[in-house]
Write a structure and sequence with these properties.
It contains one helix and no strands. The protein is mainly α and 105 residues long.
Length: 105
């Protein structure tokens, strides 16, 4: 019987070791699943941030294009104002000369 009792102790010890390892494996599996879910959430958040960044860049590009168009139009307006000012000065100058010429007669 002593050998049976020694065998039972070994079997019980091995059963406890198997149970402990099984429990450790379950904990590791649960932790892996938690980390996997967290990783998926982080991937989704990253993708959302990338989409927002793309939208922001698109808005920046559109703003830069509009700003360039505004600057171009302001340049044209400035040139037109210079031409009008020159034309008004010419009319005033020639009109004054004509008026002075007529007033001498």
């Amino acid at each position: 019987m002593p050998s049976n009792s020694g065998d039972l102790k070994i079997i019980n010890s091995k059963d406890k070791e198997i149970e402990r390892l099984s429990h450790s494996c379950q904990e590791a599996k649960d932790e892996y699943e938690t980390l996997h879910q967290h990783n998926n959430q982080l991937q989704e958040s990253l993708e959302k941030l990338r989409q927002e960044r793309r939208k922001s860049c698109d808005k920046d590009d559109a703003f830069k294009k509009r700003q360039a168009e505004v600057n171009r139009l302001l340049g044209i307006e400035s040139e037109l104002l210079q031409v009008w000012f020159f034309a008004i000065c010419c009319v005033f100058h020639f009109g004054t000369n004509v008026f002075l010429d007529i007033s001498h007669y």
